[in-house]
Specification:
Blueprint: H1 4-13, H2 15-35, H3 44-58, H4 63-69, H5 71-83, H6 85-90, H7 99-123, H8 128-134, H9 141-151, H10 155-179, H11 185-207, H12 209-237
Helix pairs in contact: 2-3, 2-4, 7-8, 7-11, 7-12, 9-10, 9-12, 10-11, 11-12
Pfam family, one: LrgB
Main location: membrane
Transmembrane segments: 12-29, 41-59, 65-86, 98-121, 157-180, 213-237
Length: 238
């Protein structure tokens, strides 16, 4: 007969238990964010990653099992991303006269992101497989995984790097823009969305609707630019 502890662990390892751990981790992150009055370092995603990482390690659950158990959360990432179009619709009038500069900035930013990631990794002694993994780091996670896979990189590592970069960008991005005296809310949103995708867009949306709307737009345009530019630049870089 199994002990109550064994039964509790079995429940925690079940798909429902792992889903619960994920939701509790994120809610804990939101609680920390509110308790710290929205401090930049108190990102709900960061807290959730720490909680889930510790939980699946203690429960001895491998990543494929966890990923399968939380498929429902991954599914809702798509609709959540589409929902970012709602604040953008409210800011549609602010796109007037801004479309061309925005498209140029996103394209140039994507090229700089790809080339700088590859060349920096090469200068630090990384092998070509890692360079291919880093190339699409500015895209959203699903796009980065697909591009990395087609490029011959390591998709799981690409996913980790994208999330990590997103968290770092959300934490230090706004203060960096303040330091550089970038005050145009459209430009601030575009900059954060281009490097910090969904995590950064969430942070900017919390601070200002215009910044959040343009961060969401930038996230989508950058993902599109990365998916189109990486295969072309790969012919030169590799």
């Amino acid at each position: 007969m199994s002990s109550p502890l064994d039964a509790a662990l079995e429940v925690a390892r079940s798909p429902l238990g792992l889903l619960g751990v994920t939701l509790v981790g994120y809610q804990l992150g939101r609680w920390v964010q509110e308790r710290t009055d929205g401090h930049a370092a108190a990102q709900p995603v960061l807290v959730a990653v720490a909680v889930v990482g510790a939980a699946i390690t203690l429960l001895d659950v491998d990543y494929p099992s966890y990923r399968s158990a939380t498929e429902l959360v991954a599914f809702w990432l798509g609709p959540a991303t589409v929902a970012l179009a709602i604040p953008l619709h409210r800011q549609a009038d602010r796109l007037k006269g801004f479309a061309v500069p925005m498209l140029v900035a996103v394209t140039v930013g994507a090229v700089v992101s790809i080339v700088s990631a590859v060349l920096l990794a090469r200068a630090l002694g990384a092998d070509e497989e890692l360079e291919r993994t880093l190339a699409p780091k500015a895209a959203t996670t699903p796009v980065a995984i697909a591009v990395t896979e087609s490029l011959g990189g390591i998709p799981p590592l690409a996913a980790v790097l994208v999330i990590l970069i997103g968290i770092v960008g959300a934490v230090i991005g706004p203060s960096t823009l303040n330091l550089l005296r970038v005050r145009d809310r459209r430009a601030r949103g575009l900059a954060i969305g281009a490097v910090s995708h969904g995590v950064g867009a969430s942070r900017m949306l919390r601070e200002d609707e215009t910044e959040g709307a343009f961060a969401g737009l930038s996230m989508g345009l950058t993902a599109l630019a990365i998916s189109l530019l990486v295969p072309v630049l790969a012919l030169v870089l590799f």
